[in-house]
TrEMBL record:
Residues 379-435 are annotated as: Disordered. InterPro entries: DM9_repeat. The keyword Cell membrane does not apply. Pfam families: DM9. This is Uncharacterized protein. The lineage of its organism: Eukaryota, Metazoa, Ecdysozoa, Arthropoda, Crustacea. PANTHER family: AGAP009604-PA, PROTEIN UNZIPPED. Residues 1-19 form the signal peptide. The keyword Transmembrane helix applies. Keywords: Membrane, Signal, Transmembrane, Transmembrane helix. Residues 403-413, 424-435 have a biased composition (Polar residues). The chain crosses the membrane at residues 446-466.
């Protein structure tokens, strides 16, 4: 069952790819094959052409004359090799292989969608390099020899369909074969090769937006983005119980315009866009046009002592998509021009409603971080989770741990007061009172001194009394 579903999906995918076609390849100035922005190979078959299920008005003419003057460029696979040729009888692809011409019922035709590509026939010789922009019959990821679309002018004055084959081992030289209406395959030394000319620039005359005329509203999306973040702190600065702290925050303001990518237009080519109001913009086509500048915003909040608040600058990123129509002029290096009508989608992105958003106010305290080196220390503010909140702080999300901000100041312009080594301001510094242990020690010393004085006084009194008694005894 799973295998059947897999085969069905592969069949659907192959059908979609076959219907949509694939981009053709051209030779770059470095010699490799690159994808063409304007030419595609479209898969068809004889039945579809005869039943008019496939229209050939955008198919590339083969450039031949005579009976095949109305034929278009085609390619088909023969014995595993892709060969280019031209349509015959209006419904088959004729290719020359070795010495014989074959008619194929399943093949690809080369399509120039909206006639966006400018194609030319450039002279080619056997000992000349294939020119830049030559249209290849094989894909850019092919590992086979390079094959380019060509034609040859016969001795009878008729252009014959041909192909130029350049081996991968050769840098630029190859061989050319052609075949006539009678089925003869000829190897020739000179002819013409089909070349896609790359335009020099684009000019767009933008008309009124189709959204306005049809009554449809443009697609608009909005998204909040954070442009800058910071915090405001107040320690012991100022005498007022409540003071407003302010700070200037900078952020990047960016807006862009993108006109999308239109089939058949080459990305990054210079383009001039003329708006309906007369304004002219110069851009690189297919790339967003961005402008970026730095702007500032003053933020502020009322704070009490030992409190802080986090602040974010938030803006609304608006994306608008408008469909438009325009007259496109393609300018080529030789000064020639091609005109066609195109349509696309213009995308604009810009910022709006830029505003500050504040967290709830929270308490902080000073802490000291002592470094291992002497005479080095730092001070920072540490939040204290005491559930502190005020009615004058807008309730927002729970703040993160902020760092000390030296740029914070009070509304009267005063700077934070200097602090000592332990983080105390002058108003917090006080005389250190004696401890209870030192008080007890002083009392004991005082008592011992008094006892010593009393003992000495008592000793001298006893000595005096003894001497007086001895004198009285001798007298008797």
């Amino acid at each position: 069952m799973a295998q059947r579903w897999l085969m069905f999906l592969m069949l659907v995918l192959a059908t979609l790819v076959r219907a949509g076609g694939q981009h053709a390849s051209v030779k770059s100035k470095y010699g490799q094959l690159v994808t063409s922005s304007t030419l595609t190979w479209k898969s068809v078959n004889t039945f579809d052409i005869k039943s008019n299920a496939v229209q050939l008005e955008d198919a590339v003419p083969s450039g031949t004359s005579g009976a095949s003057k109305d034929s278009v460029v085609c390619r088909a696979e023969h014995h595993g090799t892709v060969v280019t040729g031209r349509t015959i009888s209006g419904a088959y692809c004729a290719i020359g292989f070795v010495n014989k011409v074959y008619k194929k019922e399943k093949f690809d035709i080369l399509v120039n969608e909206d006639k966006a590509a400018k194609l030319e026939w450039t002279p080619y010789g056997k000992f000349l390099a294939v020119p830049e922009g030559a249209v290849a019959g094989v894909d850019m990821n092919s590992n086979r020899d390079h094959l380019f679309i060509g034609r040859h002018l016969s001795n009878q004055g008729e252009y014959l369909s041909g192909a130029i084959q350049v081996p991968l081992s050769s840098y630029s030289f190859g061989s050319m074969v052609a075949f006539d209406d009678s089925g003869r395959v000829l190897e020739v030394s000179r002819g013409d090769v089909m070349v896609e000319v790359e335009p020099k620039r684009y000019e767009l005359l933008l008309k009124e937006k189709t959204d306005t005329g049809s009554g449809l509203k443009p697609k608009v999306t909005r998204q909040d983005i954070v442009l800058a973040k910071s915090s405001l702190f107040r320690f012991d600065e100022g005498k007022d119980r409540e003071a407003r702290l302010q700070k200037v925050l900078s952020y990047d303001y960016e807006k862009s315009e993108y006109y999308g990518q239109i089939p058949g237009m080459i990305r990054a080519l210079p383009a001039t866009i003329k708006l309906s109001n007369g304004q002219i913009h110069s851009i690189l086509w297919g790339l967003p046009e961005k402008s970026k500048q730095t702007e500032t915003l003053m933020v502020g909040h009322a704070l009490r002592h030992q409190t802080a608040v986090d602040v974010s600058v938030v803006g609304v990123l608006i994306t608008e998509e408008h469909s438009y129509s325009a007259d496109l002029t393609t300018v080529f290096p030789d000064g020639s021009r091609q005109h066609r009508h195109v349509s696309g989608v213009l995308q604009r992105r810009y910022l709006n409603n830029i505003r500050p958003e504040y967290s709830r106010v929270y308490r902080i305290k000073d802490s000291i971080i002592v470094s291992a080196k002497p005479d080095e220390f730092t001070s920072r503010a540490t939040p204290v989770d005491e559930g502190y909140s005020t009615s004058w702080g807008p309730p927002q999300s729970q703040p993160q741990s902020p760092h000390f901000n030296s740029e914070s100041q009070t509304s009267d312009g005063s700077r934070p007061k200097p602090r000592d080594l332990y983080g105390n301001s002058e108003s917090q510094q006080a005389v250190v009172a004696p401890t209870s242990a030192s008080s007890k020690l002083g009392d004991k010393t005082f008592l011992a001194t008094n006892l010593l004085i009393l003992s000495m006084t008592l000793f001298f009194t006893v000595v005096t009394v003894i001497k007086a008694r001895n004198k009285n005894t001798q007298f008797k």
